[in-house]
Amino acid sequence: MSAWSLPRLLAKLHDDIEKRLATVREAFEHSGTKGDASEHVWLELLKTYLPERYRAEKAHVVDSKGVFSQQIDVVVFDRQYSPLIFNYEGQTIIPAESVYAVFEAKQAINATYVAYARAKVSSVRRLYRTSLAIPHAGGTYAPKALTHILGGILTFESDWTPPVGEALLKALQGGGAESALDEPS
Question: For residue range 21-31, what is the model confidence (pLDDT) as tens digits?
Answer without folding.
Answer: 999 999 999 98
